[in-house]
Amino acid sequence: MLEIKNLHAKIEGKEILKGINLKINLGEVHAIMGPNGSGKSTLAQVLAGREEYEVTKGEVTYNGKNLLDLSPEDRAKEGLFLAFQYPVEIPGVSNTNLLKTALNEIRKYRGQEEVDAMEFLSLIKEKTKLVELDPQLLSRSVNEGFSGGEKKRNEIFQMAVLEPRLAILDETDSGLDIDALKIVAKGVNALKSKENSVVVVTHYQRLLNYIIPDFVHVLYKGKIVKSGSKELALELEEKGYDWIKEEKNELVTTD
Amino acid sequence: MSEIKEIKKRYLKSYELFENSLNGDRISSIGNLRKEAFGKFSELSFPTTKDEEWKYTSIAPLLEHNFVPSLNKKTLPKEKIKKFLFEDLESNVVVVVNGIYSEDLTSLRSIPKGVEIKSIAKAISSDSPLVKQHLGKYADFTTHIFTSLSTAFTKDGVLIHLPEGKVVEQPIHILFITDSGKEKLLVQPRNLFVAGKNSQVTIIEHFVNINSGIYFTNTVTEIVVGENAIVDHLRLQEESKSAFHISRMEVDQERTSNFSSHFISLGASLSRNEFNSRFNDEGGECMLNGLFLTEGNQLFDVHTLIDHAKPHCNSHEHYKGILNDVSRGVFNGKVIVRQDAQKTNAFQENNNIILSKEALVNTKPQLEIFADDVKCSHGATIGQLDKDAMFYLKSRGIGEETARTILIHAFASDVIRSVKVNAVRNYIEEILNSKFNPGDNN
């Protein structure tokens, strides 16, 4: 469903992604790991369509379409969802308002009818339970004054309501305590199916104890330098990233 | 210089016309006031950008036109005013056409006995003691050329008087309609609202136009908020985009009175607004909120002054601006806390959003504090729509236009929410929707 070929991207003149190749099939869970500054979040943002990043080379096919040609909103309507590493606070816009507008825009795009108020209420009520989100947060402004954990849960809650085909979780685990981590993972697992795919971007192996990946990729200096099964994540946890860096640097010097 | 003299001459000439139009009224109680004010007007010069108070607002475009004072009654068919009425808010409507109070179009259905709502002209000719006591007492004309012009030409407008303890539950909607055809009218409604002890009222001053012509509104409103009285004042300025709007509001607040002002400004090519409130006694509350939207080459200017002359008073001021195209905005918020005014709380904020590259805002908070046991704060921001928030909304499937509308709404929401009259609040929401999301049919 998603195929990334030789993707290069830069921001403010600095090249961050230097040739990413990745293929994700329907129903798969991929983990993308890597040290800080390796380009993990950049990849997530580029896929979601952040305009500040300039794609200089490569292509991304999503459901047979050229993803890079689509606006961020059309990507979302096509079923792509990014759970932000740093969810944005939007004073004056309620969570409910945001979600209702988003859901209806997506439904319109898909030729479905808009949800009515009652349907919508029961839908969001059901989904708050999934991530144990305090329903009182719904009427509050988007992420404003939310704790770190509430913000992350709110992202997964939005994902639950919008039901994406491809969800990219950008360091959704960072800063979460173990209970919150479990809740987030539980939510993601409940939403996982044969009809969708999940990309988990993370710095730590911890989350992968709860969301079991089919594939693990290591991103380093803007390239995927190693791919493997979930065991790779455990190896990384044990040994850190240094051995990967060394391997990579050796490769570079022998070039 | 000689040009300015010419302009002055034109106004002097029109004064003769005006005096003749007054007939017997010339000898009324305010005859002297008019004369004195006219004397001042002849002495004072028009402000230029060299004057600190007019630094960012040049009135040169206003002086280019030859405005003729509106002296005659103009009739309008009832259907013409319908579109200006608010839904579910039709019980108390006062209509002023081209500055002249219209008895025919005014309809007052739920006014308690004893409450007076009438034409200032009528009050003057019947030698109303209220006029004698209050008119021209708060809006000092001696240093202010436009107030001297208004005072010199005092003819008509709206008088509202609530005797002690009276509560008017339904808001009073005053429509100032200007129907300026080929001739460029000078329209000068002069209003006086006096709320007696323990009284309560909501007054909406609504400036609208027919035929969107070039005209000049120069309006002065004096408001007396008596002891423990509550006055909620709303002003909606929807003048023609080619019009000039100069307004002044002077508020006199007595002990434990509560005054709030909500100002929504949309129209006029040049608008200058001076809102001043003074605490004459302890325990008063004053709120000045505003929202202005400018586009094209509109210029909006608001100068406010809250005078904490007495202790234990609270003031809250919050103005927000949304500027597009090559429009400009000026916010000047002055707060004086006098030596006596201990335990003052004064908060002021001005936030602006610039939607284009060329729009400009000059914002200046001015706090002068002479007491030592007070809480005062001020803040001013100028920015663009938050890019991160924009991307966040888009990433959830919300298109550019809708995302923009949502964020503009969100920005304006606290000022809009502070408007207590539902019908007006909904109306403002609608305006925002149609302005920033014209294609939306939700």
Can you put this structure into words, describing what you see?
The complex is a heterodimer of chains A (255) and B (442). Chain A has eight helices and twelve strands. In chain A, strands 6-9-10-3-11-12 form a six-stranded mixed β-sheet, with helices on both faces. In chain A, strands 2-1-4-5 form a four-stranded antiparallel β-sheet, covered by helices on one side. The mean pLDDT of chain A is 91. In chain A, helix 5 runs parallel beside helix 6. Chain A is α/β, with parallel strands linked by helices. Chain B is of the alpha/beta class and 442 residues long. Chain B has two domains: 280 residues, no CATH class; 58 residues, no CATH class. The relative contact order of chain B is 0.09. The mean pLDDT of chain B is 93. Classes of the chains: A alpha/beta (255), B alpha/beta (442). Chains A and B meet through helix 2, strand 7, helix 3 and strand 8 of A and helix 8 and helix 9 of B.
Strand percentage of chain A: 25-35%
CATH superfamily of chain A: P-loop containing nucleotide triphosphate hydrolases
By CATH, the architecture of chain A is named 3-Layer(aba) Sandwich
**Strand residues, percent of chain B:** 35-45%
Number of domains of chain A: 1
How many strand units of chain A? 12
